[in-house]
């Protein structure tokens, strides 16, 4: 995708062109056109024409030929490739989780361990006080979820799992080495230890 952005100039469209000149490429984003003659800009559908900056530029092979049926009179068009999801370093993810817990948990909440799935889309909070972590009608868990979404820049699912073996110290005074979760732990989760306060 860097080659496309480096060697091609994008002309965004707010109307449907009558034709696409040779050597240029008609592209739209990954939103399916709401109609075969849809004007770009409707329902998040965007389209643009790629103009080569120099003769025979590289990168056009990265585009997918699209068969959605949009504007067949213009001939072949392309759909822009999806950007691969970038995962943050686990240290940054964990810091965001630690801050979200510290800012939103009540004083009587006790956390023993936190797990983050390999794709960083799910956070499981292991606790001996699930009621305090969930909150009335899920209010505390929702605040944690919203905080993580804001700091990580993507939707994160937060699960609360009960452990009957409470930690030696509470969240704000540090935490002991977490024990291994029960077999019912979500599969594929990567285990992260909560740092002691002040780390």
- Nearest-integer average pLDDT: 75
- Strands across the major sheet, in which order? 1-3-2-5-4
Cα gyration radius (Å): 24 Å
Name the CATH superfamily classification of the largest domain: K homology (KH) domain
Helix and strand pattern: HEEEEEHEEHHEE
CATH topology of the largest domain: GMP Synthetase, Chain A, domain 3
Global morphology: elongated
In terms of structural class, how would the helical and strand content be classed? Answer: alpha+beta
- Separation, N- and C-terminal Cα atoms: 39 Å
Supply the CATH class of the largest domain: Alpha Beta
Could you say how many structural domains there are in total? Answer: 2
Task: Please summarize what this structure is.
By secondary structure, the protein is of the alpha+beta class.
Description:
The chain is of the alpha+beta class and 199 residues long. It has two domains: 78 residues, no CATH class; 103 residues, GMP Synthetase, Chain A, domain 3 (2-Layer Sandwich). A hairpin with a 4-residue loop joins strand 6 and strand 7. Helix 2 runs antiparallel to helix 4. The longest helix has 15 residues. The radius of gyration is 24 Å and the shape is elongated. The C terminus is likely disordered.
């Amino acid at each position: 995708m860097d080659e496309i952005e480096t060697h091609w100039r994008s002309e965004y469209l707010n109307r449907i062109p009558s034709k696409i000149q040779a050597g240029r490429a008609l592209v739209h984003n990954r939103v399916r056109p709401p109609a075969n003659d849809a004007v770009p800009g409707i329902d998040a559908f965007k389209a643009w024409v790629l103009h080569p900056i120099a003769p025979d530029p590289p990168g056009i092979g990265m585009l997918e030929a699209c068969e959605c049926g949009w504007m067949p009179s213009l001939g072949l068009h392309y759909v822009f490739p999806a950007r691969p999801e970038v995962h943050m370093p686990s240290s940054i993810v964990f810091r965001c989780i630690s801050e979200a817990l510290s800012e939103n948990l009540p004083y009587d909440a006790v956390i023993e361990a936190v797990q983050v799935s390999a794709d960083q889309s799910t956070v499981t909070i292991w606790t001996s006080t699930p009621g305090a972590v969930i909150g009335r009608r899920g209010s505390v868990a929702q605040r944690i979820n919203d905080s993580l979404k804001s700091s990580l820049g993507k939707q994160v699912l937060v699960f609360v799992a009960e452990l009957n073996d409470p930690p030696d110290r509470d969240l704000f005074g540090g935490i002991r080495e977490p024990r291994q979760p029960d077999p019912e732990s979500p599969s594929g989760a990567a285990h992260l230890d909560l740092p002691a306060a002040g780390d």
